[in-house]
Amino acid sequence: MKRREIIKGLGLLPLGGTFLGSILPGQSLLAAPSRVPKRNLLKELGIRSFINAAGTYTTMTASLMHDEVVDAIEYSSKEFCMLNEVQDKVGEKIAQMVHAEGAMVTAGAFSALTLGMAGILTGTDQQKIKRLPHRLEEAGIKSEVLLQKGHFDGYEQALYNTGVTIISVETADDVERAVNEKTASMHFLNCNAMEGKIMHEQWLQLAKKHNLPATIDIAADVPPVSNLWKYNDMGFSFVALSGGKAIRGPQSTGVLMGKKNIIEAARLNDSPNGVTIGRGMKVNKEEMLGMYAALDSYINQDHDKEWKMWEDNIGYINDAVKNIKGVTTEISVPPIANHTPKLRIAWDKNIIRTTRENLGDKLRTGNPSIEVISWGDEDNSISLTVFMLKKGEEKIVARRIKEELSVASS
Ligand SMILES: *Cc1c(COP(=O)(O)O)cnc(C)c1O
Known about the structure:
Layout: H1 3-11, H2 41-45, E1 51-52, H3 67-76, H4 83-97, E2 102-106, H5 108-122, H6 126-131, E3 144-148, H7 157-160, E4 165-169, H8 172-178, E5 183-189, H9 200-209, E6 214-217, H10 227-234, E7 238-242, E8 254-258, H11 260-268, H12 285-300, H13 303-321, E9 327-332, E10 342-347, H14 356-365, E11 370-371, E12 381-385, H15 393-409
Parallel strand pairs: 1-11, 3-4, 3-5, 5-6, 6-7
Antiparallel strand pairs: 2-8, 7-8, 9-10, 10-12
Helix pairs in contact: 3-12, 4-12, 5-11, 13-15
The site of pyridoxal-5'-phosphate (PLP) has 12 residues, from α5.
Protein name: Aminotransferase class V-fold PLP-dependent enzyme
Pfam families: Aminotran_5
Domain Aminotransferase class V: 171-266
């Protein structure tokens, strides 16, 4: 994924494009709109909403919350609670759901990584908690984390935020050589598992051998739903998950789950505690309860039915465009992250005279506005997913892409 390109591309978007009036929270694929807002702020402020055929990209606001989540937020927003009590009770429930000893709601998977790392470094020692992220070694805090060379993708910045240094390793021998008295943990980036030479089980064995915590980032790796507990069952010391991607919790949430002592220590490093690196990662009670409601409904939904709907919808769009002269299509499912059907539409530039950017712009500025994956290495293809579409939007997406490809070929 080329995040920088996405950000660059989105910076150029025209403001105040087509307003669909249909991106209100509480609408889901399954339910009819249940709320009529008193004010339509998107319209008032001229904020473009769009059909999201790209996916759970942070800059595109990632996902829409189900009614259950909005209900949890709305209801709890009208009551006071003790923030730590909400986190205690929500964490306990989530821990049970994901087979972990402990869990907490964080401000995204990124904060989960920072706080989990902080918990490993400090334990419950208040002096160490205050010290992060400076001069760890002077304070007797371990300061090195091992990460496989193929697992560097930028998100390790979340670990650097605690003050650690990351040591790149490739082989088991490298691990043996790298471990020393400063080593705090061994981190694993699940979506890059195939880019490394050491897979989960061996990583865990190596960590166990050296009595180190093994930690894992699975931020975007649900579905399948079983990944929620798979890595806890395997024995990772902490697991970081995004709440606002396919699980459709509040976009700003994530979950840190894992060993009881790490979660306890991570919470000491977090808001509402004042002198901590986590104080700026505040999560409010509405988000905590919203995250819990999202997980609860995600775990209990009919995943086979949802998968079938995705296949039908991607098939519908594929059927609409695959026979256009010069077009070739391909349906695939990424094996780990964003594991959901994806359609690639490519064209012969001698027959269809448009580029990826141009087609992306036409779809974006058309009516209704549509976002697809219009970045990447190839100039003559776009890709799309259907898991963030609302009911019926697959028809609009199919029609618009067909129209634009037809115009470009005549
Ligand atoms: C999205 C993502 C994150 C960050 O998740 P947030 O919930 O946005 O903080 C971290 N790691 C990976 C691999 C991701 O895909």
